[in-house]
Amino acid sequence: MHALPHDHTGARIKRLRLERHLTQRALSDLSQVPYSTLTKTEQGILPASPHLIAAVARALRVEVATVTGQPYVTELRADELDILIQPIREALDLFDLGPDPDITPRPGQLLHDDAEGLHAAVRAGEIKQTASQLPGLIAEATTAAHTAGTTEGWLLLASLYRTAYDVTSKLGYTDLATIALDRMEWAAQRASSAVVDGMYRYMRALTYLRAGQYRTGDRIIRMGLNILEQEEPGRVRDVVTGQLNLGAAVLAGRAQDRDRAEGHLEEAGRIAKRTGEAPTVHWLAFGPTNVSVHRVSVLAELDEYGAAAQAGAATVIPREWPASRRSHHYAEVARAQMWTGSLDDAFLNLLRARKAAPQQARYHQTVRETYAGLEAAKRQLPDSFLSYGSWLGI
Do the domain assignments include residue 60? Predict the structure, then answer.
């Protein structure tokens, strides 16, 4: 078993703390992270949980990405993904320039079909394919939207901005993901779509979840729910409303507010009974399965890892569920199992996460932190464990 990398998350926390001339006790007080947890995390004995990372980042007044070391540039370069980021950035900058005279957009249905194809690809875990095709399609759709000025054109552009958010957030480019969300809101306003605006609020709230600003995230969720009241009742509104409740549940869980988390989960469950499984309604994968998957996440955020591992093992994922969501779920279950000492089971779920969506798992923070935790446990693990670490770039 090889040693943890020098630049693991705990080591970065220590370096940032020393740069600010803080003792471990001082940072523990500022972040409200227990002293023993902080010291063991800095030493690499304990993996850094999302709650700890957000709390420390907030106390040190740095971005979460600074603590986690994202984006993982070396691995991105090895996978030739880094060269795909700048074209996305440039495409997002075209939003207010009007029609490009050098672009003749194809008919709207063809653009819509291509956009749906990218939605499906990113949910299948095909990040590289999506990232390579996305900039050209955004440029074409931008000209089409400005030229026609129709609701359909703006909705199409908003959906592509959402895909840009999905890609850049999965690869760890949080600044670019934020820009993509701003563009999504800009297009949604021109389309006058309460549903797309509600989806934007959901994704915006997730950025505050990652940053540890739970109260702000909850306020954004509430705003999204209010906006959705303007939409005609029906399955689409129910799906987005249910997803907002799931986001609110995780926010409350990470804020250690059990009652509020349970309340949002129960509301999402009631809605899911009406909608059934709706994996392709705005590609949110909402339904009873997603409620069960989010229950695992909430239990983990509440530090109830045993219950989270049990709930994860009992959750049956439908075959048609998006690979990206399956991969994320397996990573969550692996984290819970690691914390309960079920190291073999945890590693098995890391393997499942990689098999479901390898491009996503390679850059997934929970996968990396869980791997580091398993390695720090210094127990006998399968020979494939070391090759998994090499694949991650650790």
Answer: yes
Q: Cβ–Cβ contacts within 10 Å for residue 341, how many? A: 12
User: Which residue matches tokens 């007080």?
Assistant: 29
What residue type is 321 in one-letter code? W
Rounded Cα distance, 257 and 36, in Å? 23
Domain count, the chain: 1
Q: Which residue type is seen at 127?
A: I
Measured in degrees and rounded to the nearest 5, phi and psi for residue 41 equal -70, -45
Which pLDDT does position 47 carry in this prediction?
A: 86
Q: What is the DSSP letter of 317?
A: P
8 Å CB contact between 165 and 203: yes
**DSSP line for 142-208:** HHHHHHH--HHHHHHHHHHHHHHHHHHHHTT-HHHHHHHHHHHHHHHHHHT-HHHHHHHHHHHHHHH
Q: What is the per-residue pLDDT across 244-271, written as a single tens digit (0 to 9) for each?
A: 999 999 999 999 999 999 999 999 999 9
The Cα–Cα gap between 257 and 252 comes to: 5
pLDDT tens-digit readout, 64-102: 989 999 899 889 999 999 999 999 999 999 999 999 999
Residue 22: give the domain boundaries: 1-69
pTM of this prediction exceeds 0.85:
yes
Q: What CATH code is carried by the domain that includes residue 45?
A: 1.10.260.40
Give SS3 for 278: strand
